[in-house]
Amino acid sequence: MTEQTSPATATTFLAACHDIPQTPALVVDLATADRNIQYLATYARTHQLQVRPHTKTHKSLFFAQRQLAAGATGLTMAKVGEAEIMSAASSNLLIAYPTVDTARAARVAQLAKNHTVLVALDSSYGVRSLAAAARQLDATIGILIDVDVGFHRTGVASPEDSMRLAREVVEQAPSLRLEGLFCYPGQIWVPPDQQSRQLHAVNVQLQQVLDAWAAHGLQANIVSGGSTPTAYQSHLVPQLTEIRPGTSLFNDMNTVRGRFCSLEDCAAAVVATIVSTAVPGKAVMDAGTKTLTSDRNSTQPDSGFGLVLEYPQARISRLSEEHGELEFAESAARPQVGDRVTIIPNHICPCVNLQNRIWLQAPNGRLQSLSVDARGLLT
Question: What is the CATH number of the domain that holds 236?
Fold first, then answer.
């Protein structure tokens, strides 16, 4: 399947394609990103939901501040290093990743001395580790109990397991503070108009946990969930108090081909240069796995490694570290050596993490180099 690039999408990155001094480079169209921020904020207000966007997508204080200005109540990170950077933008931080080792627990406790810090956990080990670190620094860390709602990556398996872990958190007061529940419906990749049945199952699971907690005097002030594929159907899970989409800020070919957005909603693209056309039927560009990543498309894994806006019928068929190979079996038009192309990647989040800086394109076409502040922070 190939997309027909609309004129609006094709021209969005036109100035950047020609004006960026060196490639490969990642460009973000500010007007499109701001529109995506406002769209999510409006949806959340309409459905009485808080937004705590996941900063793994942009890793940038600049975009974190724009999300907060639009009404986000806090920020989500995966790793403590990201939280340390993002603490300059927000005093309300959620680490959506099991923090269990002593070194990271100590860093979380240090952050919690001057910030509201929440951590999602699913183990007694993690509870004990964070409690010990918080006691040592006389801090208090908020805990969300991670509940598995079908993705089967992390999260306790039953209401009883969640209740036992919640009681352990309560017993560690005042070092820990039980705040509520955390879930991630990452298994849901059907189009939005087909999500109601799966979201109803998430709804049932969360309600069972909440009922079990209530029966034993436990309260969940926060029920944190959501993903980009389910973001605009989150009202179908009425227990949720907040959502944490990340990719929806920039979007990518995963969200386009999953029918969660249109090409016009893609705010980020990779600009690359054609460096070879020597092999018949092919062109090679200077963007490989170290720029585009090796992620295949989530819903159409044979579609290639992204979409070339100038040649939508071409296929990015193979990547090595610094080479991206384009096949033109279904495309009559061909680029020449030295031509530049713009690519919407399959998965934008790791692409951002591969860049030290991105190019920000203002509505007037002017380009500005922007630091990827939390790039490479894996601990």
Answer: 3.20.20.10
